[in-house]
Amino acid sequence: MWDALFTDCRLATMAAGAPYGAASDGALGVAGGRIVFAGAASDLPDRPERLAISVERLGGALVTPGLIDCHTHLVFAGDRAAEFEMRLKGARYEDIAQAGGGILSTVNAVRAASLDELIAASRPRLAALIASGATTVEIKSGYGLDVENELKMLEAATRLGADCGVRVVRTLLGLHALPPEFHQDRAGYVRLVCEVMLPEAWRRGLVDAVDAFCEGIGFARDEVAELFEAARALGVPVKLHAEQLSDLGGAGLAASYGALSADHLEYVNEDDVAAMAKAGAVAVLLPGAYYFLGETRRPPIALFRRHRVAMAVASDLNPGTSPLCSLGAAMNMACVLFGLAPEEALAGATRNAAAALGLGEEIGTLEAGKAADFAIWRVAREAELAYWISGAAPERVFAGGKELRRSGRPERKTQER
Ligand code: DI6
Ligand code: FE
Q: What is the pTM of this model?
């Protein structure tokens, strides 16, 4: 017997092929935390009551894969509202960074926080993402910038995932900014990240991928290449913040290392888009940062489509450039600001986001064999998921077949037969 069977619903399976991969009179079967059936109710092998312990009719609701936020910096302490005020008065993000503010002000707050304080400060942000429908969230380090504090951030991310019952994918972002103590010694810091920070995080099982900020105010291509060599030697997957504010050829470099994704990409050139297509790297679009920084140059969506580069959409949740705790809002911005179709935005927050995390076999679509991560939405049209500026609210969210408790609403008892 299956554990649960949901019927009388529309399934947006998001399996590759038709938009939404929709089944209108759908059914979703779950057993042992995995999907055992996803398709038309007429294809069920037996009568519902004979198949599952619990059978629920969903009254025509829409069921989608659990959303996947494949790019966040949600573990941090403090905030950057003062910097926001400075920018509104005309200061540029890059100038604030160069004057020692920006990322480094969050580094000071993170270093001063204990592990428990960091977890407590970050938990509401993860809870908000879950309330927006997320069942998998990637979290980057990058505000510790020394071995002890980067490990503390990765530990906080690990604990948050376990506490909240969602899958958390941890990315080491040691090359996010140059810490003040290495001001005269860039090469020394890059060496520390490659030779100590990454191997130590990997040895402790605290890291799933590595990332770097390849930018004029971040790190150069050759410094990133050094990190990617170290990651390759250990077998750690790589991804890259590339071409957010200028074109340094980061996306091409990432592609040459078989990166899972290149992220931002406002300034990417066509050769590098072609290289990404060849490498199968996902283009992760981060409209929250584009919006919050008041950028005007959009990522080249038409080129991604033409070269068949898969596009993901993520929140980039961080205190400096994207204080955004809703994946639905990021989907809305991807449509309004970048011109994605609503089904592209949903694919970007499900199937393509899974690929950007190297988890395409495990999550991202409603298909038999995958984890039973899904969300139920009381909407009449699929496009509504990208329509609300603040994001649509899922009625219920399941991760690994278990219903997640959401703030303000007691856990719902499943109807037993
Ligand atoms: N790009 C971003 O948009 C964030 N990090 C990065 O590499 C910004 C991080 C911050 O300003 O705190
Ligand atoms: Fe980012």
A: 0.96
